[in-house]
């Protein structure tokens, strides 16, 4: 039986890895390890289909070490013993241990001395937070790296590679994948490359050739193969951004029913990244200081949604949307930072006052650095009047508080008191 496309397209060396540039890009930690042939055990954690196994196999391919794959939940201690014996004979074995968070104490105790000796280089893979789910004895002997969902651009690269690779991919097939279908496939799989490749292969294998002998893959075919309708995408992709725009404007306008409707369309399309990013933006841009607790609750809801995945993710997402919709609103924070940036970009920066400059080095006092600085905690109420802005901006005011929430009302009163005290 032919292996799945996602399996066949796994990288054989570190240069073939798609995405994860924070780990395998030029001068990054895993590439440095491979180049120097100084590998240490590591734990890779992140969502399914993001390349944990691919990184492990690529490391093995680049270093020419033997590579073995086991599952901590289903493989036995005897399987680990076989790997250990091989390591004694060959010198070093890279062991990818999937679901490492399910490693029991017996297997762990067997592994530890082999990790210490370096005969086995362990690459643990898990979707769970290793700081919570993995035993400290293993965790302390491994570096922990987060593997992130692939960006849409990375998925595009992998899809095109699969379509053109005649040895491992679909290069021998006369496939015409429409631009809209490819865009949709890259977006709807939410950074899961395995799902994207497997859906592509299903589309190719299950679609008959047309009269010209070409396998035409359009968005309707891709929708069927990923089992998610493109409710948020029209044929040129504009509707995706229209729905996101309507989503944010509905929350900003406190229309909870409209906001739930538009988020429902994004949920139906499986677009958790867009929902998460937009919710986080809305929390701090549109609610902000009127209700900081709602911002914190939104962050927690997004984290829960990512942990749960769909369909359960819809529950904390709905809680966050309702919370933000019905919360008091204030855009004072974004207005404040944009006002400050406007001055900076207009060349109104000015020199940092001498009493605020760094004075933590010998000779700083001779340059007048920090000499006249007044330490606020040495004064009543932990405050003393002194200038902080550059001289040319001495009277600039960027933050103007609103009164739509109780918290910001308190901030406004404090701001008024401080400004009056400074003037007097």
Automatic annotation (TrEMBL):
Q: Does the keyword ATP-binding apply?
A: yes
In terms of Pfam families, this protein maps to: AAA, AAA_assoc_2, MgsA_C
Gene3D superfamilies per record: 1.10.8.60, 1.20.272.10, DNA polymerase III clamp loader subunits, C-terminal domain (1.10.3710.10), P-loop containing nucleotide triphosphate hydrolases (3.40.50.300)
Gene coding for it: rarA
Molecular functions (GO terms): ATP binding; ATP hydrolysis activity; DNA binding; enzyme activator activity; single-stranded DNA helicase activity
Keywords noted in UniProt? ATP-binding, Nucleotide-binding
Source superkingdom: Bacteria
Report the record's Gene Ontology biological process terms: DNA synthesis involved in DNA repair; DNA-templated DNA replication
Q: What is this protein called?
A: Replication-associated recombination protein A
* Alphabetized InterPro entries for the sequence: AAA+_ATPase (IPR003593), AAA_assoc_2 (IPR032423), AAA_ATPase_RarA/MGS1/WRNIP1 (IPR051314), ATPase_AAA_core (IPR003959), DNA_pol3_clamp-load_cplx_C (IPR008921), MgsA_C (IPR021886), P-loop_NTPase (IPR027417)
Domain AAA+ ATPase intervals? 38-150
Return the similarity comment.
Answer: Belongs to the AAA ATPase family. RarA/MGS1/WRNIP1 subfamily.
